[in-house]
């Protein structure tokens, strides 16, 4: 069931208005620069930054602890990006969630604009970032473009860039969705299937300048095909009841 309360206001003035959830694995060099950018983008706004370390084998956790201003959650072993996102959102204290990748390629300066649009669109809406000018390798751009077209045709999610890590949405909306491995790739389709709405917001994209990618193109492709088939199955099996008006005779 979709959320029915407006999360624009938090009843507790000391609580954050927005939680920024960053799933990471072996991103130690990117922690401090990215956190500084997030803090600058949300200066003056009550917020919290949650890093979910998905079984890193480098100094990612130590880098987060050294800052002293970031909530750190750790998986004992790597469970995947989707599991890290779920962990962070379940632990979040704010009614609004922003997610972004931990490699520094998403620009935190885009969060306020995406959040403003999310509040304007309503509590049933996910704002998906749209990297109109990607700074990836040619191979990655081409494969991503093909994958987006195939996915959009088969799932009907009408989202040009579902793979963008920067998204903003109400926490309650996310918690209505069924969690599963790699669900982050299909958030727009899941929200639509649950009866919500999805809008795309153009955002910046930057080249990776520190660290290395934890995923290869072939790995993404192989997993993506299996996940796409699974998502198509879920769409067919997931029934959304249509509620009738309350019975006036009910107590």
TrEMBL record:
TM annotation in the entry: none
Domain Glycosyltransferase 2-like per the UniProt entry, residue ranges: 19-174
Record Gene3D superfamilies: Spore Coat Polysaccharide Biosynthesis Protein SpsA, Chain A
Cross-referenced SUPFAM superfamilies: Nucleotide-diphospho-sugar transferases
Domain of life according to the entry: Bacteria
MF annotations from Gene Ontology: undecaprenyl-phosphate 4-deoxy-4-formamido-L-arabinose transferase activity
Keywords: Cell membrane, Glycosyltransferase, Lipopolysaccharide biosynthesis, Membrane, Transferase, Transmembrane, Transmembrane helix
GO BP term, example: lipopolysaccharide biosynthetic process
Pfam families: Glycos_transf_2 (PF00535)
Keyword Thylakoid included in the entry's annotation: no
Cellular component aspect of the GO annotation: plasma membrane
PANTHER family documented for this protein: UNDECAPRENYL-PHOSPHATE 4-DEOXY-4-FORMAMIDO-L-ARABINOSE TRANSFERASE (PTHR48090:SF3), UNDECAPRENYL-PHOSPHATE 4-DEOXY-4-FORMAMIDO-L-ARABINOSE TRANSFERASE-RELATED (PTHR48090)
Designated name of the protein: Glycosyltransferase family 2 protein
